[in-house]
Design a protein that fits this description.
about 260 residues, three-stranded antiparallel beta sheet, 18 strands, elongated
Amino acid sequence: MAHGGRAGEGRETFGRARRGALPFGAAAVASLLFACSGGVQSTSGDGQPCKSVADCPLVPPDGCSARACKGRRCAVDFTAAGTDSATQTPSDCRRAVCDGAGGVKDIPDDLDLPMGGGECVIPSCNNGVPALTPAGVNAPCFGTCHCDGNGACAGPGCITDTICPQDPVGCWVGKCYGCEECSLVNVPAGTEVFSPFGDCKALLCDGNGGSMTVIDDKDVPDDSDPCTVDSCVNGVPTHAPLCPPPQTCNQGVCSP
C-alpha cells in the first residue's frame, strides 16, 4: 500500500509538469526576469535571449547599473552601494551615490561648496545645506582693500568715480574699477565740450583725451550794440554797421 502511494504521488507530480505547472523555485526565476527591467540584482542570465550585451535593454545612464548577457540571457548587474553616480549636480553640498540596488540616492557632501558671492563671501556646507556667509571687515579683497562685513569690498581710495581725477575740459573721465584703481577713459572724438560763447569757434574732443578748436560760424558774438549786425565770417567775429552811410543809427533806428 505504501509503495503504491509513492507511485501515485510520482505520477501526479509528472502530470502537473506536463500540464505546464511550474516546478519548485519558479518564483525566484520570475524575480530575476523582472530584474532585467530594473528590479532585483541579477548575477545570472535569466531575461530575454541574447547573443551579446547589445541585444539587452538599455539601463539608466547614472552608472548604477549595467546590462549584461550571461548564459545567452539578459541580466542587470548593480554597481556597489556608495559608488559615485555618473550624474552629479555641482556646488549643491550633495553627492549622488549608487544604492546597491540600481538606484541613486543623495548624501551630504560638505566639500561640494556652493558658488557665487564674490571675494567678500565665504561659501560653506553644513551637513548638505549650502550657505554664503559675509567675510569679516578685516578680510582682504582685490589686493589692497578690505571687506565691509556685509559681503561687499570696500577700502580707502577709489570707491566711486567721483574720487578719480577728472578732465576739467571734459575730454576724458576717471573711472573706478575694483578698489583704489582709477582708469582714464577718453571721450569719443567730435564730442563738443564747453568753450567761450560767441567766439565763432567750437571746442571738440579729439578721441585721445585732448581737444581741438574748429570754426563754428553759428557761434555768433554779441557786442550789445543795437547799431551793429553781429556775425561770423570763416571763424572771425564781425560787427558790421546796421545803417549804411550816410545814414546814422540811433538805438537801432536808421535815419538820413
